[in-house]
Design a protein that fits this description.
Largest sheet: 2 strands, antiparallel
Strand order of the largest sheet: 1-2
Radius of gyration: 20 Å
Distance between the termini: 41 Å
Number of strands: 2
Structural class: mainly alpha
Number of helices: 10
Helix content: 55-70%
Shape: globular
Length: 244
């Protein structure tokens, strides 16, 4: 089963390089390792961009409601566990382990450098950045919040590392390779979130909050400022807006 899961995800990300990319260019085309820490720091303020307001508001409200109202019964976990989708939950657990996305990120960065494919390098760099930022955030929150898991195994239930890993990857896949591939990445993230609930590793609120944080991180990394150009000449004025 593990072998089948590996090949499924492998061919998914191998197919990324053959997908027709949408017309989008990263505002930072320096893909060197030396520049990576600079970009990492420069992207942190982008966590607060306007595009992240809606996901933050909806995700926070949903997670808070579930935590207060529904988590005590945790009926969703029992329902999911009773469904005959255990292979799907196994895939979700496997996909969210992180090394799959890490392999796709570092592999894309390396292959892009070897083949002189700038877009593939930028994708790998940005995907790597999202994974590192997510790991730092989720580790700090786990120890700061100290929420007990539904199975009682430890006090690191909030947030879900598997879920944030899956969802931080999705906005970057979508930005570079279009919604066709992006929807697949978001679907895999959703399966991962449900798998963590079905296995009693997390409450639903843990996974909702993690998906929210992952999307916010991914959006911040591929954020490109809107370009506004105003041209004025004799008897004419030209306004150009470029939305990235």
């Amino acid at each position: 089963m593990l072998k089948n899961q590996f090949f499924f995800v492998f061919f998914l990300f191998a197919g990324i390089s053959s997908v027709h990319a949408q017309d989008w260019q990263s505002p930072d085309n320096n893909t060197s390792l030396e520049h990576f820490p600079v970009k990492f720091v420069d992207d942190l303020p982008h966590l607060f961009i306007a595009e992240n307001i809606a996901p933050f508001a909806v995700g926070t409200a949903s997670a808070a409601f579930d935590w207060v109202v529904l988590d005590e019964q945790n009926s969703l976990a029992a329902s999911l566990d009773n469904w005959s989708y255990h292979s799907l939950w196994d895939l979700g657990d496997f996909y969210g382990e992180g090394w799959i996305e890490g392999l796709g990120a570092v592999g894309s960065w390396s292959i892009g450098a070897f083949t002189d494919n700038l877009r593939l390098q930028e994708f790998g760099r940005d995907a790597s950045e999202s994974l590192i930022e997510s790991t730092i955030l989720v580790t700090g929150l786990k120890y700061a919040v100290g929420r007990e898991r539904p199975d009682g195994s430890n006090n690191q239930s909030f947030p879900s590392g598997h879920t944030i890993t899956a969802f931080c990857f999705a906005p970057i896949v979508q930005k570079y390779w279009g919604w066709g591939t992006g929807v697949t990445a978001y679907a895999l993230g959703t399966v991962t979130a449900l798998a963590r609930v079905a296995g009693y590793h997390h409450y639903l609120s843990d996974t909702i909050a993690s998906a929210t944080l992952g999307i916010i991180i991914g959006n911040s990394i591929v954020y490109a400022p809107k370009d506004v150009t105003v041209g004025v000449g004799p008897g004419q004025m030209e306004l150009k807006l470029a939305f990235n």
